[in-house]
Specification:
Blueprint: E1 3-7, E2 12-20, E3 25-30, E4 48-52, E5 57-62, H1 71-74, E6 76-83, E7 92-103, E8 112-118, E9 123-124, E10 129-130, E11 138-148, E12 153-162, H2 171-174, E13 180-191, H3 203-210, E14 213-215, E15 232-237, E16 243-246, E17 255-258, E18 261-268, E19 274-280, E20 291-295, E21 309-310, E22 320-321, H4 323-335, E23 349-350, E24 355-357, E25 367-369, H5 370-377, E26 391-392, H6 412-418, H7 430-433, E27 441-453, E28 456-465, E29 473-477, E30 481-484, E31 487-490, E32 495-498, E33 508-510, H8 513-516
Parallel strand pairs: 14-15
Antiparallel strand pairs: 1-4, 2-3, 2-13, 3-5, 4-6, 6-12, 7-11, 7-13, 8-9, 8-10, 8-12, 15-16, 16-18, 17-18, 18-19, 19-31, 20-30, 21-22, 23-26, 24-25, 25-27, 27-28, 28-29, 32-33
């Protein structure tokens, strides 16, 4: 039986509920039901009909996940038709959204996929997308600014399916499925005026649009605690003289939800990739560490051990992974390998091993690295990574190309730009907010010193205070066990898909076909 009711050019909602059975995968969909008075309502933009083809209750059972290529025949399809019957002579402009009322956490997965398909014109409207970046409630835009002429109609299928993987274990998705997995409804809305689509913005463009107040800073002699008021970003000159835009102080709008995790935006890199630091499993996480007791390197009696990669007795060697790099690589494999196409291969992670004072040696007299001279002796951070061997990248186009996995740590200079100061506590700036508990200190990627005092040798790297000396820059022996916060950079071509960057509505992103294969 068809459910057929009129749509105000304002909004018509259909409700569908997906329930997973206990055995195998069983989806029970309660088909779209139009809410309203049941009478045609006419406004100046025209009148649209929405007809839902399914019965009021549909039970669709899937014994197994399906291959994406089989979605047209094997995915669940909720079919509806939008038509303009001509009770008005004005053409209509409409949009289609999926409004999520609730979703179980495990179904916020890259393997639970959906597509809006235009059956009339035989074309995919959305392409294949997934639920990996959805929040528990909210709206996913499926289509906007679609024009419907008087007398025309368009039939759509909303498809959803569990995508089969032959490389990852999907046991968790298949077992213990009881109760409602996803509750959602299709919403069709229309408006008067011209059909003008909101342009697609890259994430870095949206960040700049949302922060129109661009300022510069020259004084880094005190810890920075100023609020950005939700609209301020700072600009500095970076690598190759190009501008970089960074957040500083108390920031309320630099949250991103990506790869089922939360992150804080550190800066828009010089190549427009967007640098993120891990912020945990919720926006309220205060212990956002991937490891709370990790040495930067297990050995400390050679200055080479400050290297993210190192060669014993060499200043700029890259033959051996540091202990901390091994941990980060393993975390990337386990948590981000399925999202690798989002992550920039050209972004630079700087492990500045140039000397600021003294003379470099592997085991000789005390000397200090350049970051120490900039941040401990002086107060002048930089985004420039001078030596190409210290520019750790996955691509050889911008750096040393030594990274198999494009992941690193924040630099001490980036911490200073964000609001940190050597030896001064600062618990209010955003870098410290998600790392107040769980680890006394956590590592940066910036070498500080080689110290040789009365035969006591120690290679040192900068750290940031966690539960101890909150938010302050410090430097410590590389064999000390501290917390680890991962840092990645989203490609410049990654698209903004939603949110305003706040804790309650973090930015979400999506990927175009061309971006998935690009280095950045």
């Amino acid at each position: 039986m068809n459910n057929n009711k009129r749509l105000i050019i304002m909004s018509v909602t259909g409700v569908l509920i997906l329930i997973c059975g206990v055995v195998g995968i069983t989806y029970s969909w309660f088909s779209t039901v139009v809410e309203g008075t049941g009478k045609p309502i006419i406004v100046s933009a025209g009148v649209l009909d929405v007809k839902y083809d399914e019965a009021e209750v549909m039970n669709v059972s899937f014994g197994k996940p399906i291959y994406d290529d089989n979605r047209a025949t094997q995915a669940y399809k909720n079919t509806f038709t939008i038509s303009h019957e001509g009770r008005s002579t004005i053409d209509a402009c409409y949009s289609i959204d999926l409004s999520i009322d609730s979703i179980q956490d495990k179904f916020k997965s890259k393997w639970v996929k959906y597509e809006l398909y235009d059956v009339t014109n035989d074309v995919s409207v959305t392409g294949v997308k997934d639920f990996s970046n959805v929040v528990s409630t909210g709206t996913i835009e499926l289509a906007e600014a679609l024009k419907l002429n008087v007398g025309e109609s368009v039939q759509y299928e909303f498809r959803v399916w569990l995508s089969y993987s032959d490389i990852e274990d999907q046991t968790e998705l298949l077992q213990n499925n009881s109760g409602t997995a996803i509750s959602a409804h299709i919403k069709v809305s229309a408006k008067s005026g011209e059909c003008v689509a909101t342009p697609d913005y890259y994430l870095y463009e949206q960040i700049l649009l949302d922060n129109p107040n661009v300022e510069t800073r020259t004084d880094f002699s005190v810890a920075f605690t100023t609020s950005n008021n939700g609209d301020t970003i700072y600009k500095a000159s970076g690598q190759d003289g190009k501008d970089t835009y960074y957040f500083a102080g108390q920031v309320t709008n630099n949250y991103v939800k990506f790869a089922n995790k939360y992150w804080r935006i550190v800066r828009i890199n010089e190549d427009n990739s967007v640098r993120l630091i891990y912020a945990g499993t919720s926006t309220e996480d205060t212990s956002a560490f991937i490891n709370t007791g990790q040495a930067y390197n297990s050995s400390y009696n050679n200055s080479a051990y400050v290297g993210y990669m190192y060669t014993a007795n060499e200043q700029f060697g890259t033959s051996t992974n540091s202990s901390i790099k091994t941990v980060l690589d393993e975390w990337y494999i386990n948590n981000l390998s399925g999202f690798d196409e989002y992550i920039s291969k050209t972004a630079i992670y700087c492990n500045d091993r140039t000397v600021g004072s003294g003379t470099w040696s592997a085991t000789g007299s005390t000397f200090y690295y350049a970051a120490y001279s900039r941040l401990a002796s002086g107060k002048s951070p930089t985004y420039i990574c001078g030596n190409v061997n210290d520019r750790f990248t996955a691509s050889t186009s911008t750096g040393n190309g030594k990274l198999t996995y494009p992941i690193g740590l924040i630099t001490a200079d980036e911490v200073a730009y964000a609001g940190g100061k050597n030896g001064t506590n600062n618990s209010s700036y955003y870098i410290a907010q998600n790392a107040k508990t769980g680890a006394t200190y956590w590592w940066t990627m910036s070498p500080s010193s080689w110290e040789n005092n009365l035969g006591n040798h120690s290679a040192g790297v900068f750290s940031v205070g966690g539960s101890a000396a909150a938010g302050s820059l410090n430097y410590n022996n590389v064999n000390t066990t501290y917390g680890v916060r991962s840092v990645v950079s989203l490609k410049s071509c990654v698209l903004y898909s939603g949110g305003n960057g706040t804790a309650s509505d973090p930015y979400t992103v999506e990927l175009s076909d061309t971006c998935s294969t690009a280095e950045n």
